[in-house]
Amino acid sequence: MNFKKKTLGLIAIAVTTFGISTANACTGAQIITEDKAAINGRTVEFGVLIDTSVAFVPRGYKFTGMTTKGPGKTWRAKYASVGMIIADYDVIVDGMNEKGLVCANFYFPGFAKYSVTTKENQSISMSTTDMVQWILSMFDNVDDVKKALKNNEVAISPVLTPGFPPQVQPFHFIVYDAAGKSIVFEPIDGKLKVYDNPIGVITNSPTFDWHMMNLRNYVTLGHTTPHSKKIFGIELKPLGQGAGMLGLPGDFTPPSRFVRAAAFAGSTIPAKTAEGGVMQMFHILNSFDIPVGAARTVEAGKIYSDYTMLTVVRDTKNLRFYYKTYDDQNIKMVDMKKFDFNAKKIVKLHTLTKQKFEDVSKKLK
């Protein structure tokens, strides 16, 4: 496969010369609409520009996983899929297949530890990038993915992946299906640890079980404005709507974003339709939008900033994949049903576009 060598080279130079921090602040969540559509989405943040395209991958496409020892696990896609690819490496890192199964990777620094690739496990090994595509290609529900992972049908090799800075990237993964089920799996000490995810939320480090335990610190939060109380004979009333969420952490750290995502996804009034749910999910994810400079590091006198370069929403009922970018807030949609699932080649579209502002001056009456 061909890679955009110029883009990769610039990233490599930036990282090795300036020591860019590539801390990632992605946030994912899920809601269920009244018409039983599972709508999930995520933000994508990174310390350097990641070159992305939205792509459609047909059934029958053959893949070979990358490992530190060369070619690894091979498979041929049982299901077609749509999602984001990095650079020109035609492997989806965040996407949905024709059965409404979703898989995506999220940054997991300080905790991810992949298996050592040996001659014995090379035939089942692949990169973190390949892992998402394998799941999208081969499975139609969360239970079967969970079973395959627990049966050690696959291993992650600590290999450099195209399109990312030239370091082994630490990831953990989330899977959703059209019924709304979800799991998170994490590479811990060389093994894949699988967690049921009843709330459909994911951020970054630390481990998923820690985040779930941490939610217990926020059991007093609620979506309803509390009633007034009398203290020393004085009636104290809330200062305004939203007082039920007073104390909700507002910073950009993974634990705080996890709590906020759980609070927002768990308190929204369900949309009537899938389309309404898509818009609702974009509004939820807007709460995690990071402008350039709000989350930054300073290294060697230079400023490097995480920012929300991409926001993705997936409608698992109608097989529609939506996205918008930092420079173009117009929401774009790819409808899987408009493609030939048995096509012979991958088709794609670059995501980096510039928004044009609509001048409505002449429409005023």
UniProtKB/TrEMBL annotation:
The keyword Hydrolase applies. One of its GO terms (molecular function) is hydrolase activity. It comes from the Bacteria. CDD domains: Ntn_PVA. The keyword Transport does not apply. Residues 26-347 form the Choloylglycine hydrolase/NAAA C-terminal domain. Residues 1-25 form the signal peptide. It holds the Pfam family CBAH. Keywords: Hydrolase, Signal. InterPro entries: CBAH/NAAA_C, Ntn_hydrolases_N, Peptidase_C59. Belongs to the peptidase C59 family. This is Choloylglycine hydrolase family protein.
